[in-house]
User: Fold this.
Amino acid sequence: MDINILAIESSCDDTSAAIIQNGVVLSNCIANQEAHKIYGGVIPEVASRAHQLNIIPVVDLALQRAGLSKEHISAIAFTKGPGLIGSLMVGVSFAKSMALSLNIPLIEVHHMMAHVLAHFAERPHPGFPFLCLTVSGGHTQIVRVNSHLEMEVIGKTIDDAAGEAFDKTGKIMGLDYPAGPIIDQLASKGEVKFKFPEPKIPGLDFSFSGLKTAILYFLKKELKTNPNFLKEEMNHICASVQARIVSILLNKLEKAVKETGIKTVAIAGGVSANSGLRKSLQEKGLQEGWETFIPRFEYCTDNAAMIGVTAYYKYLKGEFSTQSVAPMARLPFSLKG
Ligand code: KG4
Ligand code: ZN
Assistant:
C-alpha cells in the first residue's frame, strides 16, 4: 500500500502544504505572504492571521494537484519548530485536528532537519556521511549528516544568520524585505569593488553582525562626500556584500571539510538560492574534489515538501507524535529529530 503523507509548513511567513507518496513529491504548494513588505520585515501577528486564511486552500490545492482525496492520506506531518510561535500554532493545530478526525498518525518535524533532508526530494541524493551548510533567515549551521535522522551541528552563527545579513544590510540600503533575492539580482549587474571585513571567529562558528555595522559606517562616510553614492554604486555594493557573505560561508565550509575529512558537501535553506553561493560552491567543489549538492530553487526556501520527506523517514521508523504535542519557538537540534 502507498504511504501518502500530507505535510504542512507554517514556521514563518509562507503557508505550504505538500503530498509525498512513498518518499516522492507529488505536490508542493506555497502561499506567499506579501503583507510584510510594507513593514520591512515579518510581523508575527500578521503572519499567523495570514496562515489562518491560507491553510485550508493550500491543503486543498496540494491534494488536488496530487490527484488524491483526504481518505488516501496515511499520516499528517507538520513543523513543530523552530519558528514564530503563532505561525507554528496554526499548522500544529490544523495537523492535530485533521489527524484526529481521520484517525491517522501525526508526525512532528524539526524545521532545520527538514531543510537538510530537502536533498532527498530529488535525485541524485548525497551519500552518508555528508556536510550540509544550512543557511536561512534564522539559522546558519554546518551540519554533519550521518543518516536520514541522525545529524549534528558542528558550526553555527554566534549572532546574525546569513539570511539576516542579507536582509539587514538590504534594509540599510533601503531595499524591500526580504532583501536577499534583491541583492542577488543587483549583484549580478555589479563588480566586487568594495572590501568589507571578514570576521575572525574561532572554530567552525560564524559571525555576521560586524558586516552590517561595517556597511552602515561605510555608507555614512561615503554619503557625506557624495549624496548620490548609494544610487550610483548600488549594484557594486550589492556584489561586494554578497561576495563577502559567500566567502565567510565557504571558508568555514572548507575548514569543516578539512577537519572531518568528509568531501560530500551540500547547501540548504533560503540563502542556498543565492546565485553567488551556488556558483562559488560549484567552483570550489571542482577545485577541491568535493562532490557538491545544490537543491532546486523550490526546495531552498521554506516549503512543505521537505517536511513531508523528513516525515516519510520517521514514518518508516514508526516515530509518531501524540495529540499532546505543542509547537516550540526554540527547538534544540539534537542528534535525532
Ligand atoms: O529558509 P528560508 O525560506 O526561511 C527561514 O527558515 O528563515 O530563508 C529565508 C531567507 C531570507 O533571509 C531571504 O532573504 C534569504 O533566505 N534568501 C536569499 C535568496 N533567496 C532567499 N538570500 C540571498 N539570495 C537569494 N537568492
Ligand atoms: Zn527555513
Notes: Residues 107 and 320 are 5 Å apart (CA to CA). The chain has a mean pLDDT of 96.
